[in-house]
Design a protein that fits this description.
Two copies of one chain form a homodimer.
Chain A lengths: L2 H16 L6 H8 L3 H7 L3 H21 L7 H10 L6 H17 L3 H27 L16 H21 L6 H16 L1
Chain lengths: 196, 196
């Protein structure tokens, strides 16, 4: 792991344990056991350091998703992939807390916004592809089922990503109301309606 | 408007325009045109000031929802109420940016978490009640429709709130990908599936 990656790890841990607002070059240097100058050698500004750490976090999640091999059931594939994004254990809980904090800050930080946009675009492409397979396998309402909109891979991938982000966002703020078992039950419920 | 409310307004504006991380007693005092001592007279700590401002924001949204009179169609009622929570115009966009920032911070701040919990509980009660009316009006899958879960007011209110929070969270970070028309189309799509 490079020195920059080590600094990003330390930053992520501070953000997960105490919040992004406690992150500063000084704090990160102290927690990493290096000088402020050593941090500044890698990152000219705090914003640069934050952007690097955000990318570090999403790449870690991305690596888990990339290791995933599709099986024969698009529905099971979706459920398995999306579980990787939800705060279902301590690792993912910490990761999700940091993700929510970074994404919230992306609203006013163009560098973070670019990373968020790129990450979501990749997720959307993957979900769209899986939903296309699901539709081709005859899942989701076809035309002629009245009021229910037929499965549209792109649009429904957008909605599905919002559902997972919303469950994550709500669970990060209220872990007691939304424990892991509740989160997976809600996700499964959503997928059943989508892919009936 | 009380002095404390004025301070909360100023804090909310700073958070909406520059981000919650730029909020400090000093910044708020300067922007409000009062002394640091005047702010401290109302709020002993920065955390206390943040909690007051979060409550201020959610109460403003709550007042809009409280003014709402149910009509004859639970589906239209839901669509109208939930639109009030989405970032569909500049006022709600600013409000949503601040809401997302506060809720993200609630993960590690017990005072903010208590406000978030209380607000979500009220919203959940309202949504549960409307979904109960919808079910009583014969909407949503009844038993015997195979794999599709029948409408369960409490569970589906939880999922619906996550959908709206997720759309808000995603749109705050990526307003260009999720403009108002797209957000309402996605919400309507979800409601159609839920209430078919």
């Amino acid at each position: 792991m490079s020195r920059a990656d080590e600094i990003a790890e330390v930053l992520t841990r501070i953000a997960a344990e105490r919040g992004l607002e406690h992150v500063s070059v000084r704090e990160v240097a102290a927690a990493a056991g290096v000088s402020i100058g050593a941090v500044q050698h890698h990152f000219a500004t705090k914003d640069e350091m934050l952007a690097f750490a955000f990318r570090h976090v999403v790449e870690r999640t991305g690596a888990r998703l990339a290791a995933f091999r599709p099986g024969r059931s698009p529905e099971r594939d979706l459920a398995r992939v999306l579980r990787e994004l939800l705060p279902l254990d301590e690792t993912r809980r910490a990761e999700c807390r940091v993700y929510v904090a970074f994404a919230a800050r992306a609203a006013l930080d163009p560098a973070l916004a670019a990373i968020q946009r790129e990450t979501q675009a990749q997720l959307l492409d993957g979900l769209t592809e899986t939903l296309r397979r699901a539709r081709d396998a005859g899942l989701g309402a076809g035309p002629g089922t009245g009021r229910v909109p037929p499965l549209d891979p792109r649009t429904d991938a957008t909605l599905l990503l919002a559902v997972v982000d919303g469950l994550t966002f709500d669970a990060v703020a209220e872990p007691d109301r939304l424990p892991p078992r509740r989160l997976t039950a809600l996700l499964d419920r959503y997928l059943k309606r989508l892919l009936r």
